Amino acid sequence: MKIIFFFLLISNQIFSQSKNPEEILKHVADNFNKVKDYTAEISIKVNVEFIKVPEAKAKIFFKQPDKVHLKSDGFAMLPKNGMEFSPTSLINTKHTAIYENDVLLDGIKTSVVKIIPLGNQDDIILSTLWIDQDKQLIRKVESTTKTNGIFVIDFSYSDDFKYPLPEEIVFSFNTDKMNIPLNINDDSTTEKPKKKNGKPDGITKGRVIVKYSNYEVNKGIPDSVFEKKN
């Protein structure tokens, strides 16, 4: 009986590693690399219990491999890890990748791949990716960080758009870990989280919802757009 159990255990481990995680990631990166640059109009909605921020509009500029610029007339609260995320930048860092299994995510078959960055430079210590292999898209990312706790990014795509760019992303996080500015601008108000016995009353969840529209892809963007203005 023990021999049978051991055989089943070994067989399960072999089966779970039957897909090559690096090959899965390469397909995603190759697909994303079709996009040399893009601009898009975005709307940003912040849902955090103790911060009241009006919905903002902005324009985002992206250029491979990792240049990002945000243009907004007013304040736009955006999580850095969410807006600067790209499959290429994640996959090109030195890492160990592990294929875990295949699961259904919102009715879509995805392959779950864990990425462990090597070295101490990155704040992220582990990322789990849910990858739609049919369309070679990342559907979800969950990352554990050294300083900002755990955050999750959910990606939604339009079936009518030929490029691997999201229609919407939802960035979820715990506000007790994430660094959030409490004094933002005149259009926003803040409230201190309720406390019991001098301690925060539980963990407050936060979400930032970003919707994209009017994409312009591979039109060419000069590097000067991404230079910091004094």
What is the compact description of this entry?
By secondary structure, the chain is α+β, with helices and mostly antiparallel strands. The protein is 16% helix and 43% strand.
Characterization of the model:
The chain is built from four helices and 14 strands. It is an alpha+beta fold and 230 residues long. The protein has a single domain (20-218), classed as Lipoprotein localisation LolA/LolB/LppX (outer membrane lipoprotein receptor (LolB), chain A), CATH 2.50.20.10. The protein has a ten-stranded antiparallel β-sheet. A two-stranded antiparallel sheet has the order 2-11. The protein has a two-stranded antiparallel sheet with strand order 12-13. Residues 1-15 and 181-190 have low confidence and may be disordered.
